[in-house]
Design brief:
This protein is an alpha/beta fold and about 450 residues long. It has 12 helices and 21 strands. Helix 2 links the parallel strand 3 and strand 4. Bound molecules: iron/sulfur cluster.
Length: about 450
Amino acid sequence: MAGQYYIETYGCQMNLADSQLVAGLLNDSGFARTDDMAAAQIILLNTCAIREKAEETVLNRLDALAHLKRKDPSVLIGVLGCMAQNLADSLLESHPFVDIILGPDSYRRLPQMLAQRTQEMDHIVDTRLSRHEVYEDLFPARETGLNAWISIMRGCDKFCTFCVVPYTRGRERSRSLESVVAEAAQAVADGFVEMTLLGQNVNSYHHEGSRFPQLLEAVAGVDGVRRIRFTSPHPSDVDADMLRVMAAQENICSSVHLPLQAGADRTLRRMQRTYTRAEYLKLVDRIRAALPDVGLTTDIIVGFPGETEADFEETLEVMEQVRFDSAFMFKYSLRPGTKAANYSSHVDEQEKQRRLEAVIAMQKESTLMRNRALTGQVAEVLVERESKKSPLQWAGRTDSNKLVVFDREDALLGDFVQVKIDGSHGVTLQGHIVNTVESYHAVA
Ligand code: SF4
């Protein structure tokens, strides 16, 4: 055995999927994964650069790892992912004990680098971005569970002015449809019933004439795939074909994450979001017409440079009009190297905080309103885990991605059960089982 490695993941689901990919690569090269950091000879942090706070978290974590390196200099510490790509030089200046820095397109070289690093003293840095790397032939080492993350495309060509992703993850490229279908079939064989298709801009997937709707249809046709989700789509790439396929295929969940970011056309233009407020609202109507029970979620950024009070009010107006089921809401975070970093009129921190609290309050009202409307309805729920509040209850999600908590009765993890919604506590729905639809006890 080449040694034990420990991997810690920060940020989005793409990073979770990438950590599984790295684990697969290392396992195939004779390394063994451990969940005990103290026992590991290799410690890897798979990092996120989307917001300043995410970077600070990793830097603090690295500070805490310094003592391990002092105690045992043979322990190898590696920084992977978006921060590695974004901050390679300054990372080495501030944390010179880091051995390996590897950007998201360089993971194939990791086993070789680990071997090399044990023989050499120099730091190893590889942050070359590729126009082709999609890790097509590699199979991720998934832990057991019900949901398999399947990365279908990488990178982004949209260049929203606030976002660092096109710089850290490079240009868009997609895997072949056949390789995604093969991975879904393998995941089913391994006991997974839900597939979440991942990409920075998932619905701009395109490979040799196949686009996202064709890929969705092909994965929906894989035997044993009970649920398909995907994230994160861009509103400009949602088209009639995608909605038609979603409506026609029962196993594609009726849930769409549709990042709005801001409600004012002026801000959307400065963000380079490629849609207007009116186009976004029209798209919401089209989605709801095609998928009447759809769960609609979004991302909101408040305090983008130059956002006036009137602009911000427009964000609240759109939120009030759409009434999203839930939302991820953030204060604008300046990312060096992006276009918006050079914009003038940055909004001060206190004002950003006030706006954030206002959108959170608005969203809370919408979530409660949407949840209340479900009371009395029966929804199919996948039993995913024990409820955080009580070991006597299960938690799982509806097709529209709502979290429901209910008494266990005879249900087991992996069952699909019909749950009658009795009400909601905060953002979580409460219900009781009325019927078990299907059992997948093998995955418990
Ligand atoms: S679409 Fe915009 S926000 Fe999303 S990853 Fe690409 S640049 Fe970033």
